[in-house]
Amino acid sequence: QVQLAESGGGLVQAGGSLRLSCAASGRTFSFYAMGWFRQAPGKEREFVAAISGSGSTTNYRDSVKGRFTISRDNPKNTVYLQMNSLKSEDTAVYYCAADAGGRSSPRTTSARYDYWGQGTQVTVSS
């Protein structure tokens, strides 16, 4: 069982930056690939970024490449999402998730993820 808790969301102007954090419980954090997903009002949840258990492999949706960076600190059981050059279309609730099956090759499909946090709101004003 893994429990996840996101933090770091908030209100920011377009062009600004935020760093989201996701703290995980348990002693097997490195066994899981970690992903960030987001859901805007009236839209389906979508993949944002993912990172392998070791941190050596990452995966991003096209619209955030070059602006967002996912990273992890395994001794601290924490995964991060650094978001730069934010746009109004980045406004959403952001969720972190853990995937035991994708440890080596981080996956982009939400149904593959086993554990989810409660989400943190990111609002980008234009």
Describe the overall structure.
By secondary structure, this protein is mainly beta. The protein is 0% helix and 47% strand. The chain has strands at residues 4-7, 10-13, 18-24, 33-39, 46-51, 58-60, 68-73, 78-83, 92-99, 115-116, 120-125. Strands 2, 4, 5, 6, 9, 10 and 11 form a seven-stranded mixed β-sheet that branches. Strands 1-3-8-7 form a four-stranded antiparallel β-sheet, with no helix packed on it. A hairpin with a 6-residue loop joins β5 and β6 (58-60). It is globular. The N and C termini lie far apart (40 Å).
How many helical stretches? 0
Largest sheet: 7 strands, mixed
Helix content: under 10%
Runs in which pLDDT lies below 50 for 5 or more consecutive residues are none
The SSE order reads EEEEEEEEEEE
Instruction: Measure the end-to-end span.
Output: 40 Å
Radius of gyration: 13 Å
Average pLDDT confidence is 96
Tell me the overall shape: globular
- Based on secondary structure, the structural category is mainly beta
Output the keywords.
single chain; 126 residues; mainly beta; 4-stranded antiparallel β-sheet
Write the layout of secondary structure elements.
Elements lengths: L3 E4 L2 E4 L4 E7 L8 E7 L6 E6 L6 E3 L7 E6 L4 E6 L8 E8 L15 E2 L3 E6 L1
Parallel strand pairs: 2-11
Antiparallel strand pairs: 1-3, 3-8, 4-5, 4-9, 5-6, 7-8, 9-10, 9-11
Summarize the structure.
By secondary structure, the protein is mostly beta strands.
